[in-house]
Amino acid sequence: MTAPSQRLRAAAALAAGGAALAFATSAAAHSGTGLPGGFASGFRHPLSGADHLLAMVSVGLWGAFLGRPLIYVLPVVFPGMMVAGAILGMAGVRLPSVEIGIAVSVLVLGGCIAAAVRAPVWAAVLVVGVFAAFHGYAHGKELPSAADPVGYSLGFVFATGLLHVLGIGVGALKNRPGGAAAVRGLGGLIAGMGAWFLCRGLTS
User: In whole angstroms, what is the distance from residue 57 CA to residue 131 CA?
Assistant: First the structure.
């Protein structure tokens, strides 16, 4: 593979991260005022908040770095624990500092990618599972007022899965010459965004 081709692939990885940020809106997307129901609304929601979008893409990116079995396990654990967190939210169980937990999830997951952390299976599952519960809880608090909560939930989980697949696809560039550095650089950008989310959450 030629050097220009290597640089092109590395740039593609960074561009994917930039595009994700460009299409995302504010991280503070959890007012608790209720959401319109339906599959389409649920599908759009993970794409409308940079915090959720980056966390979900990061799960796929980190899984790609960790390889088997976590490349398959983490994208299953996240939606599963997200549903569990949503149930807690709908049941009115109090979970403190939800927005802080979400911001920390972006910071930590991005940092794990940037540092190429090779966590054991149990540790990676624990980290992703805990963070997923925070993400699910935030939406569970809003979900009961949706006109079609089942359709909304299905759309949300489907979009989450696609974002995981996107992360895995970008993470696959690590196997290309220069790709690992590009993916780790993208992880650094994600961690930086997480730090910004955290600072904003602590000062708001």
Answer: 13
Q: Is 151 exposed, middle or buried (0-12, 13-18, 19+ CB in 10 A)?
A: middle
Q: What angle do CA 177, 180, 186 make, to 5 degrees?
A: 130
Mean pLDDT of the chain: 81
Give 88 or 139, the one with higher predicted confidence: 88
Which of 158, 132, 192, 190 shows the shortest CA–CA distance to 13? 190
Domain containing residue 59: 3-25+37-203
- Residue type at position 57: V
Single out the residue of 83, 103, 85, 108 nearest to residue 95, CA to CA: 85
Report how many domains make up the chain: 1
More confident position, 47 or 159? 159
32 assigned to some structural domain: no
Residue 41 belongs to a domain? yes
Flag whether 47 is in a domain: yes
- Residues 98-157 have pLDDT tens digits of 999 999 999 999 999 999 999 999 999 999 999 999 998 887 776 656 667 778 888 888
CA dist., res. 89 & res. 134, Å (int): 9
Task: List phi, psi (to 5°) of 158.
Answer: -65, -45
d(CA 169, CA 183): 11
Name the CA radius of gyration of the chain, rounded.
16
